[in-house]
Amino acid sequence: MAGTIVSRLRRAPLPxxxxxxxxxxxxxxxxxxxxxxxxxxxxxxxxxxxxxPAHVLLxxxxxxxxxxxxxxxxxxxxxxxxxxxxxxxxxxxxxALATRPDAVVFLxxxxxxxxxxxxxxxxxxxxxxxxRMFSDTRGRKLPRYYIPGNHDVWLGGDDPLSQLARxxxxxxxxxxxxxxxxxxxxLVFIDAPHLVEDDATQRRAGVDIETSRWLPETLKxxxxxxxxxxxxxxxxxxxxxxxxxxxxRDMNVDCGPNRERGTLREGRGFGYExxxxxxxxxxxxxxxxxxxxxxxxxxxxxx
Length: 303
Hints:
The chain is of the alpha/beta class. The protein contains nine helices and nine strands. Helices cover about 40% and strands about 10% of the residues.
């Protein structure tokens, strides 16, 4: 009997230990990995003459789900999908806020199903969900900038549904093309989906985009505004270009060490385009002469 009691006592701590280990594993996978991933995310505060560093957080393709994001899933599975994805986005957002950015740029596809046909009230509720999910829990009025993605507005047509999607986008997210000055840099935000459509329209009309250096009037106006603003500065502003759709690049060019698979290739399909055309990409580079370009859409790393 005594031996049995001793044996039980020796075994008793094991379940408790396993519970503790299990709890620690869950906490690590649910929270720890997010904060661990930001340990190396140190702001590169190199001093710039006459300006203070500005820390800008970039968020690409959050694609907040709605109940119709995956039509082939039943109501229960769709509700579960929404709950899991919403939780992941909230945790990632709160972790990113811990870096204390001065501004946030959303690189398009804020909504997974923003271009779908729906009533005004339903659309407003969808945007409200996005705003709640990405609210600033620190109580600050964090400046936000948005560019449209192909999940926010239609790409590939000028039908009434496309016009409605763009109108709603402008109502709730702001201009389709815009710019801002932050930390001595001119941030240029372009409507890449519509640029793809305009590119195709001009080509059908026989416009030689390569030799004419064609760009939409809205982007030419942005160029003029930036040039006029630079006249009051000691030196021209450093332009940072933001485009949801990546600019064209040779598919054989290496995308960097963090690329998970393949390279960035040309391609298109219903409602999407992998890259801007070579001519439009060149015209953007020549027109704005950016020091760096940031894009989304590809869901992978590329330099």
